[in-house]
């Protein structure tokens, strides 16, 4: 088993800092992913993000790759996590394609609840009353931010993409838990490299099978900075989240880092001149308050 020792000198309190860093980097990454998806498509986005991680994280894991294959539990955990995550990504894209963003996005917030439930069941990571209240505040706040219109949201039972969004939330919640577990049992860099390497192979096979390899070169030529920024910030966010789970409960790390939705909303206001409705501003405020208080009161 690979021993995670590179960061052993860092104080446990740094777990909060890593989770906050993941929030920041995911906010930027998600903002750029939306732009890339519109310009080059989602499959190319997956390929570039996974290729970037496969190359950049390789120096951190190459000495331990063969050890992973010799340990059945480690290999199974990595493979299972990768499959669950990839399925979550695919279902996520399908849900966003079929359903309205204003309907689908609020459902994704419950990824926090799923990750927290799994960490409580399997890792005995129980939250105290105040922490549960604060996480509830964060979930409610993020839900308000995500809901563009309550008139649209009232139609959730008949909207297309809702069932897919529910499954995507389940898979991504499980993925967050498994990334945390794998980071503790194996190594934060290994789980990120292995998962992305598998996704790179799958997405590359997709382009080979469909004879669309030329699209990769074309996209790199047309949008190099946008693609690099998306790949850099998204992968740094995953690494920061993975490291944070080695110091603090997965539920706390997920609650803080998943609040990138609030940060992404701020970026939308600043750069896209987007306007938030009253309930969205309220959600943004209580989310930020919840994150700040949770970050300061948490004790391992």
- Beta strand %: under 5%
The major beta sheet can be summarized as:
none
- Main structural class: mainly alpha
Number of individual domains = 1
Total number of helical segments?
Answer: 16
Instruction: Identify the overall geometry.
Output: globular
Mean pLDDT, to the nearest integer, reads: 84
> Quick one: how many beta strands?
0
From N to C, what is the helix and strand string?
HHHHHHHHHHHHHHHH
Distance separating the two termini: 25 Å
Question: Can you tell me the residue ranges where pLDDT is under 50 for at least 5 consecutive residues?
Answer: 3-9
Cα Rg: 19 Å
Helix content range of the residues, please? over 70%
Give a structural overview.
- By secondary structure, this protein is mostly helical.
- The protein has one domain (14-297).
- 79% of the residues lie in helices and 0% in strands.
- The protein has helices spanning 14-40, 42-56, 58-61, 65-70, 72-98, 101-108, 111-123, 129-146, 150-153, 162-185, 188-209, 214-222, 224-244, 250-257, 260-271, 278-297.
- α10 (162-185) crosses α11.
- The model is unreliable at 3-9 (pLDDT under 50).
Which key features would you list for this structure?
300 residues, mainly alpha, 0% strand, globular
Furnish the topology, listing elements before pairings:
Blueprint: H1 14-40, H2 42-56, H3 58-61, H4 65-70, H5 72-98, H6 101-108, H7 111-123, H8 129-146, H9 150-153, H10 162-185, H11 188-209, H12 214-222, H13 224-244, H14 250-257, H15 260-271, H16 278-297
């Amino acid at each position: 088993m690979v021993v995670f020792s590179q960061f052993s000198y860092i104080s446990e309190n740094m777990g909060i800092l890593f989770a906050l860093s993941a929030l920041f980097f995911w906010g930027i990454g998600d903002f750029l992913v939306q732009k890339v998806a519109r310009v080059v498509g989602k499959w190319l986005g997956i390929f570039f993000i996974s290729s970037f991680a496969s190359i950049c994280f390789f120096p951190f894991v190459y000495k331990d790759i063969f050890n992973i294959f010799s340990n059945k539990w480690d290999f199974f955990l990595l493979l299972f996590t990768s499959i669950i995550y990839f399925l979550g990504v695919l279902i996520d894209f399908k849900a966003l394609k079929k359903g309205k963003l204003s309907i689908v996005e609020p459902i994704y917030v419950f990824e926090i609840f799923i990750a927290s439930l799994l960490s409580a069941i399997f890792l005995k990571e129980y939250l105290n009353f105040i922490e549960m209240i604060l996480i509830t505040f964060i979930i409610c706040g993020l839900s308000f931010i995500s809901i563009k219109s309550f008139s649209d949201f009232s139609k959730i039972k008949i909207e297309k993409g809702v069932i897919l969004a529910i499954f995507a939330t389940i898979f991504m919640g499980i993925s967050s838990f498994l990334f945390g577990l794998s980071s503790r049992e194996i190594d934060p860099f290994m789980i990120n490299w292995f998962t992305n390497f598998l996704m790179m192979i799958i997405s590359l096979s997709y382009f080979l099978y469909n004879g669309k390899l030329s699209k990769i070169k074309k996209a790199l030529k047309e949008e190099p900075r946008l693609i690099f920024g998306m790949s850099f910030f998204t992968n740094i966010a995953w690494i920061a989240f993975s490291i944070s789970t080695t110091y603090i409960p997965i539920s706390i790390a997920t609650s803080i880092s998943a609040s990138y939705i609030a940060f992404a909303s701020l970026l939308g206001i600043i750069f896209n001149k987007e306007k938030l409705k009253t309930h969205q501003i309220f959600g943004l405020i209580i989310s930020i308050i919840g994150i700040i208080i949770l970050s300061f009161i948490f004790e391992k």
